[in-house]
Design brief:
Elements: H1 32-56, H2 60-83, H3 88-100, H4 104-117, H5 122-134, H6 138-151, H7 156-168, H8 170-175, H9 181-198, H10 203-211, H11 221-232, H12 238-254, H13 258-266, H14 274-287
Helix pairs in contact: 1-2, 1-3, 3-4, 4-5, 5-6, 6-7, 7-9, 9-10, 10-11, 11-12, 12-13, 12-14
Length: 290
């Protein structure tokens, strides 16, 4: 593989990705497969340390040193693949590493190979779905996301990304007659709802589910109001709290509770929300003049 690494690229840190490997053993294993696992863990440790150094690096000399270390890790992966061609975890780990460094096509190739060797890794199905979604191959991406869910139905990230895919390509899915409009809305919202239920303490999942009521043609406004009411109490940051209140006001307005919506809006005083507040008030006044 050509020399690929320049630390100037934007790195993607996959904090929501499930861990691939258990903690290392203190003893070097003896079998060839165990040796591959041992070497792979060592590469993973070096990779994590290099990216951690990058986050803190300031001087050009530091950046060059990390670039050299990352290239050395690439060389290590390539050597390991040469002696463990049928060991899927090597391809998975290398593919995820390449993704972090912005090498999308090379990453996809590694993960495709991993999937050929062992088609039962949810994390691989999910990552291949991400690549296909970015390439605009929405129908294939949906199939891979669904396979990831089938393999690990309790991972909220997979449901969340399915909802985002459906939302982003809604017109294409409907035009291709892969979904009926009403069925599509139900599936999209169910994806976000499932992610929120599986990890109710994760604000992005909860927020996206609550927002999805504004994205469907036949929203259940009572359910939306209940969800936004919970989210109003969720963040401790005053700005975030008032943003949730503004969404709550909009849900109240959509449900026909214009008096309640105006009351909520009067309590919102954050300057960064002023324009959004004025727009919502204009909508309310247009439909319910005083």
């Amino acid at each position: 593989m050509k020399k690929i690494l320049s630390i100037a690229i934007a790195l993607t840190f996959m904090t929501d990705t499930p861990s691939l490997f258990a903690q290392k053993s203190d003893e070097e294993p003896q079998s060839s497969e165990s040796m591959a696992t041992y070497m792979l863990k060592r590469l993973g440790e070096r990779e994590a340390a290099a990216f951690k150094r990058y986050e803190k690096a300031m001087a050009t000399e530091d950046i060059r040193s990390i670039e050299a270390e990352l290239q050395s890790i690439v060389d290590g992966y390539e050597k390991l693949i040469s002696v463990a061609k049928g060991y899927s975890p090597v391809y998975i780990s290398f593919g995820m590493f390449l993704h972090r460094t912005g090498e999308r096509k090379a990453s996809n190739a590694m993960l495709m190979r991993a999937d050929e060797i062992d088609p039962y890794h949810a994390i691989v199905k999910n990552q291949l779905g991400n690549y296909l979604a970015e390439e605009g191959k929405y129908d294939q991406a949906l199939a891979f996301y669904q396979m990831a869910i089938d393999l690990n139905p309790n991972e909220p990230l997979y449901h969340y990304q399915t909802g985002n895919l459906l939302f982003s390509y809604k017109s294409f899915f409907i035009d291709d007659k892969l979904f009926l409009p009403d069925g599509f809305d139900l599936q999209m919202q169910e994806s976000f709802r499932t992610a929120a239920m599986l990890n109710p303490s994760h604000l992005p999942y909860r927020l996206r589910y609550a927002q999805s009521f504004f994205d469907v043609s036949r929203p259940n406004w009572d359910a939306a109001i209940e969800e936004w009411q919970q989210l109003v109490e969720f963040p401790s940051d005053p700005a975030q709290k008032q943003l949730m209140e503004l969404y709550m006001a909009r849900a109240r307005f959509e449900a026909g509770h214009h008096t309640a919506a105006r009351k909520i809006i009067r309590g919102i005083n954050r300057p960064e929300l002023q324009k959004s507040k004025e727009k919502l008030l204009a909508l309310i006044d247009a439909k319910h003049p005083r």
